[in-house]
């Protein structure tokens, strides 16, 4: 699919509110990176074990083609990208996106599509694609107008890049406009790769990076300490190591402002709380353990964080 010298941002689109938000974000990423956009739509007959007429399948495919054409039209209307191409495939969405992701520079998709029940927060593709993709994936939640009237979350909501809210298409030509990019860093190879992505993204957006680390000591939180264990020293050493890693990493990448925040908190809760008011949260995906698709930090990020979440693959 990729032509020499022509990388692309792959975006999943099915006309759902989440995919419309993802489309706007993908266009912004493509503008910043000088890449083309590939609008991907997968369709699949819902009763694969039952024979149906060719005419019926042709009608379903015609509807699916209209969806991907609508996505291409929307990208062209937003403008600013060197090229836009459709990708229509008769297969399950996760499989199609993962196959195309192997050639993409970046994948963008909504947190849920048109299927599922009404209160579903994260769809199957929004979990399966970040869990397996060889390419960074950004999962974008649909904008909820009720967020603006929720007194408990006045500080949570951010617009994302210009044009990610339905009423901001006119602003989508204005550029990225900076923002705070939060990245979880625990010293693992996966988190170091995530930090590199966060810094590069901040450089594209003229933004800032906040590296965060949650240090969790169950004994200290239960109000007692284990015998012969210096909990305060353990915490001090952990914080010192974290800040040293962030300082060294910040000196190896693009010149962007970087801050480090270390707190005694469970890591999943730390990233969720830190992402409030952020433009983007970046989480590194570790190599999977048996029976676990994604770890607890990534689970919490996809389910609870309201800003877009970027998931970077583990280093080879």
Name the strands of the widest sheet in spatial order.
3-2-1-4-5-10-9-6-7-8
The total count of helices amounts to: 9
State the domain count.
Answer: 2
What is the 3D form? elongated
Task: Please identify, by name, the CATH architecture of the largest domain.
Answer: 3-Layer(aba) Sandwich
Largest beta-sheet characterization:
10 strands, mixed
In CATH, the homologous superfamily of the largest domain goes by the name HUPs
Organism: Nonomuraea salmonea
Pfam family, one: Usp
Biased composition (Acidic residues): 145-154
InterPro entries: Rossmann-like_a/b/a_fold (IPR014729), Universal_stress_UspA (IPR006015), UspA (IPR006016)
Secondary structure: elements and pairs:
Elements: E1 8-12, H1 17-33, E2 36-43, H2 54-78, E3 84-90, H3 93-101, E4 106-110, H4 124-132, E5 137-140, E6 180-184, H5 189-205, E7 208-214, H6 218-221, H7 231-250, E8 258-263, H8 267-274, E9 280-284, H9 296-304, E10 309-312
Parallel strand pairs: 1-2, 1-4, 2-3, 4-5, 6-7, 6-9, 7-8, 9-10
Antiparallel strand pairs: 5-10
Helix pairs in contact: 1-2, 3-4, 8-9
């Amino acid at each position: 699919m990729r032509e020499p010298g022509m990388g692309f941002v792959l975006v999943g689109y099915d006309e759902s509110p989440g995919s419309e938000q993802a489309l706007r974000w993908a266009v912004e990423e493509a503008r910043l990176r000088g890449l083309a956009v590939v609008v991907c739509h997968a369709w699949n007959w819902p009763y694969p074990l039952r024979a149906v007429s060719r005419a019926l399948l042709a009608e379903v495919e015609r509807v699916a083609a209209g969806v991907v054409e609508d996505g291409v039209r929307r990208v062209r209307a937003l403008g600013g990208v060197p090229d836009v191409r459709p990708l229509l495939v008769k297969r399950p969405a996760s499989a199609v996106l993962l196959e195309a992701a192997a050639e993409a520079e970046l994948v963008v998709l909504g947190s849920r599509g048109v299927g599922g029940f009404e209160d579903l927060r994260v769809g199957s593709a929004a979990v399966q694609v970040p869990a397996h993709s060889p390419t960074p994936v950004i999962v974008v939640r649909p904008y909820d107008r009720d967020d603006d009237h929720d007194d408990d979350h006045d500080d949570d909501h951010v617009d994302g890049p210009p044009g990610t809210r339905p009423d901001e298409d006119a602003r989508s030509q204005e550029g990225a406009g900076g923002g705070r990019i939060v990245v979880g860093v625990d010293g693992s190879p996966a988190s170091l790769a995530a930090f590199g992505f966060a810094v590069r993204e901040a450089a594209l957006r003229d933004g800032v990076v906040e590296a965060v680390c949650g240090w969790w000591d169950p004994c200290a939180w239960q109000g007692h300490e284990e015998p012969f264990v210096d909990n305060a020293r353990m915490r001090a050493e952990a914080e010192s190591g974290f800040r040293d890693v962030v300082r060294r990493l910040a000196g190896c990448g693009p010149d962007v402002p970087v801050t480090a925040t270390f707190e005694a908190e469970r890591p999943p809760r730390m990233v969720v709380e830190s992402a409030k008011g952020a433009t983007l949260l970046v989480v590194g995906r570790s190599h999977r353990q048996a029976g676990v698709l994604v770890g607890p930090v990534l689970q919490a990020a996809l389910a609870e964080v309201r800003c877009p979440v970027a998931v970077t693959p583990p280093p080879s």
